[in-house]
Amino acid sequence: QVQLVESGGGLVQAGGSLRLSCAASGSMARIDIMGWYRQTLGKQREVVATISSGWNTNYADFVKGRFTISRDNAKNTVYLQMDSLKPEDTAVYYCVAKSSSWSTWEWGQGTQVTVSS
Questions:
Q1: Higher pLDDT residue, 29 or 81?
Q2: How many other CB atoms sit within 10 Å of the CB of residue 33?
Q3: Dist. CA 49–CA 95, nearest whole Å
Q4: Contact 115, 85 (CB under 8 A)
Q5: What is the pLDDT of residues 31-90, one digit of tens each?
Q6: Helix spans in the chain (H)
């Protein structure tokens, strides 16, 4: 059974930085896509950034230039470096992963990021 475990969330002041990590375990399959979504109360979950196994990246417009996604394929781990954080970045951040060997996308349990003004 695939498991995604996130870490690195917390409370930070506006303008500060946080680094999220997500480690995948329970599968020997190559993970094609890893990424991050976020959700705030009353809003739909939205994609933040994704990265392929070949390190192709995609970012939501609202994080371009501030967030950087990366991954370590040997460790099946994806990272999200978040700089110049804004109060509107406050959300629960979820790790996602997909392999062609899996029938569905896999999700982590979420980690809270709170940015104070």
A1: 81
A2: 18
A3: 10
A4: yes
A5: 999 999 999 989 999 999 999 999 999 999 999 999 999 999 999 999 999 999 999 999
A6: none
List strand residue ranges (DSSP E) for 14-110, in order: 18-25, 33-39, 46-52, 57-59, 67-72, 77-82, 91-98, 106-107
Q: Measuring CA to CA, which residue among 95, 66, 90 is closest to residue 78?
A: 95
Position 45: which residue type?
Answer: R
Q: Residue 93's closest CA among 117, 63, 65, 64?
A: 63
95, two tokens:
């790790």
Run of H or E residues at 7: strand 3-7
Residues 86, 64: contact at Cβ < 8 Å? no
